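User: I'm curious whether this sequence folds into something compact or stays loose and floppy. Could you predict its structure so I can see for myself?
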Amino acid sequence: MYQQHFDLAKALFGSPIAGDGSVFLSARLRAVVDNIEIASSTRDSALVLHGPAGLGKTTIAAHALRNAGTRLAIGWLGDAAQTGTEVLDLLLGEFGFDVHGQSRGERLQSWRQYLRELGATDTRAYIAVESAHELPVAALQALDTLTRPDPNGGPGANLVLMGPTRLCGLLDEPALQHLKQRVRLRQRFAPFEQAETEAYLVHQIMAAGGNYDAVFRPGAAGAVHAFSAGVPRIINNLCETVLAVAARRKIPAVTAELVEATAVGLCGLSPPAADAHVAHERAVDALLSDADGDTDEDAAALTLESAAREEIPTLTESVEIDIDSGAYELVVEAAASA
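Assistant: Here's the prediction. I'll summarize afterward.
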């Protein structure tokens, strides 16, 4: 939608797991990739990538694993498995096996044989588990058992467990002692710092064939960082919305004021606490302004009166927009709790 308006060859934020060299790596993230590659140098190590949601754990893990070599077999598991049998079935299904009609013993034999064949061709096997903290202890224990080296020459597989920091505590369960002993890396992920947020936006625009200075005005990246708290997933969503609004309204470049209006009015993000009331007023004014710059003062007053009842407004508003006509209707669904 906005690509033509900003003279971009593609959308800025495509697949969350980039399959090429377009992954943004700050100095901190390069160090993380190095740590993952070092920790996965043995065939049966376990890695724990932990931190809040939306920080790019899956993206960085995929990038690091692809860098580990050209002969790879990577399986991605979610949190659906509840038992050891379900774990085995999901693993076989992920690697293309049809297990219909097979006994559990036959399925287990197929899995072990597959790992031995990978070892014989010097192919590394990685099992990446997203939301690993949601798995029952029995499922994690089964993952450990199924990816260990076996006495018949199977090299086992690397485990990459991803989730919030409480995942590290889960490994203290007595039944997971062996899995905990396999862990060679506990890597914490953190939000972007402000300089990283701007560097990320520069990188994404350059990868799309654009000119950063023609898309974002000075101060806009700082506003993106403030409202996203440096979380890449929120940065992506906020910027996609801002760019779409700018394209629909034929705004030549993204400003800090446009970021504030979009973040508060459309995405429902809270203003930075120190400037909460000021940012809220600016956002409401911007959203209620028509194409000629006039403001629906009655609607704005009602909205601000509602917001003033809160000490610091964390908005849960929905906004219905007819951008082509310049008409905006701000509907307050619920006031935030203090």
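Summary: Confidence is low (pLDDT under 50) at residues 290-338. The two ends are 38 Å apart (CA to CA).
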